Amino acid sequence: MSYTAIEAMRQKNAERFHTDIGPFPPPLFPDEETGTDLKSAALRFLEKRCVGLRFSAEKEKEEEETGQYLGTSLCPNQIPYNMQMDIDRLCLKNELGKFIDSGVAEDAYTVYYAYLEMFVGEYGRSQSMVELLSEFESNASSLLMKHRDHYSHSVYVFALGLAIYEMYADFRKAFINFYALDPDDGPAAAAFFLKFWGLTALFHDIGYPFEIPFEQVISYFEIDRKKRAPGLLYIAYHDLEQFTAIADKENDRLEVLYGRRFSSVCDLLAHGIFLHLGKAYRISESRLLKVIESKPTHPEKNGYFMDHAFFSACRLYQEMVSLPDTGDLTNAHVDALTAIMLHNSLYKFAIAFYKDPEKKKDPFKKELHPLAWLLMLCDELQCWDRTAYGRNSRTELHPLGADFHFSHNSIHSVYHYDIEEKKKIHDFWKEYFAWEEKNDGSKAPRLKDYSDTAAKEQRFRKDIESIVDLTGFPLYVDSDLKPVNRKVKHTYLSNSSFLHIYDFAVALNARYNYQGREDEIPVEQLEKEFNELSLEYKLLNINQVRSFARYLNVIDCFYTDKPVDFDVLKAFTSEMTSVFAPMEHARWVRDHQLAGWRYGDEYETLLILGPKEKEKAERKALREQLRRHKLTLNIDASEEEILSHYETLSPEDQGKDWLPFNSMLKLLRKYDGLRIYQLGKD
Question: Which residue has the higher pLDDT, 406 or 233?
């Protein structure tokens, strides 16, 4: 039983109404029960290992004593608190499943959204930290020589880590032992892992906006693109005191944890890394501090590279201590920061010297710092399906997809390359075989990344094995050619910064309530109402926003936050709505099915005892408690059946799919930039 609070609600309803009426368990993804692939393993972790995630025994007791539910669904106090927590976990699982299927940044967005809402607080508090990474990359990185996406990449890394925890017993044991967790309480250990692995994986690259300007200058002035050396013009960062400051309140807490106070985040990172790695790698805390402090200020001491990991760790620290819902800092919070600090260049080039034959040290063992071990492994494995922004990156051959199988305590990975690049690949093999025949001791030719996974040197696998210790968990790497399937990317003309998806969703949520009064309502009121929703209903609005690109595409419209020479759409016509209203109904049905909703109108007909004036609110709450809805269909309904079902709805119910959208157009004008335009007609 995976969703115990949902099941408890089902039993309570069965006793109340003398029939098994729901709510029922949500459907599983294909192969989720036994599959060894990335998606199955990652989702199974959330489904099976995280039972009872974020449950509160105190709130459950209060509900029993007062007879008042404390959980929020569409409105506050409609469902038990723990049932809301079950639904939140289901939301995270569903959004992660969608992302693994598509890999697009918009699906990555909802994974970030769900995680932040569940473990940090309201998404709006931290949205700039996450979204600016994607905006900065997409707008600035094309000026670089080498650069690829790090936004979707981070969510892939997150999924890989969940799959490895699920499938690799030795890693679970190392993690549980490291944090002295109860080995007999699997759900508590999994919940602890999910929280701190999420912090580590999802935010390990948020410092890239600091590295990108450095690389832009290098790309513009580089005198030798193969070697960075004196004479190269570069930028450095100074006046970092505020950025790396530790307030007295946090230092009080850190003194409890570590028995000392810290002068800066750099000092804290050096100490945390020394505690875990100092003895094993024979490196002093003072040496670590010196290297860390040089990262932003002296790139010439670091091979003329800027380390985004430094900025990621410092930025995440400042975010964690500024948010009231994160609670007191713990050792695990600091471990997330030190794992991030280690993952890029610090460990490889200043601690282990993994490419220096004379100074090279043993690969990183998971027992030393499980979060750092896992981040380094997953960060290296995740090289597929990454948008290439840099000029050189676009000419290289990167994998467009990958299949993973985690079985028999091993990782079997196959990286897929575009079959349309077969001429480039043929030319590589021709050069490679000539090199083999020559056998003159010269370096093997390369076609990055293809040759690193396909050629017998197996650079890709061997590099990973020289970074992290894979004893007992061998990695097998292969490659093949496949046609590109661009349909899963759902690419349309509509485009906007992620900063506006949230605004769009807020306006969309308010579309029913303020028809005719749009100009009177302040933005703050709209956002307050949106943030009072449960995570499930917030995501329903966000996913509807993301579907809008598809709807607008079929009616020759698009949205954007950029100034364009097209007419702003003032209102949807009846012809337009007749096209996209059935599409919206189908999306609404599918999203509800995925969340475990079933067809039924019992909430309108069952006998409810109590004051008549409260009956309407009681019936709305009962709908949420049963998770049944008269406008949806059961999970086995086909697309044709869903569209046919739409035709049977009353004009009033059909109107719910389109009438309020003209109100939404007016509400959108409250936000700067984002507008819907209509393509010109010949």
Answer: 406
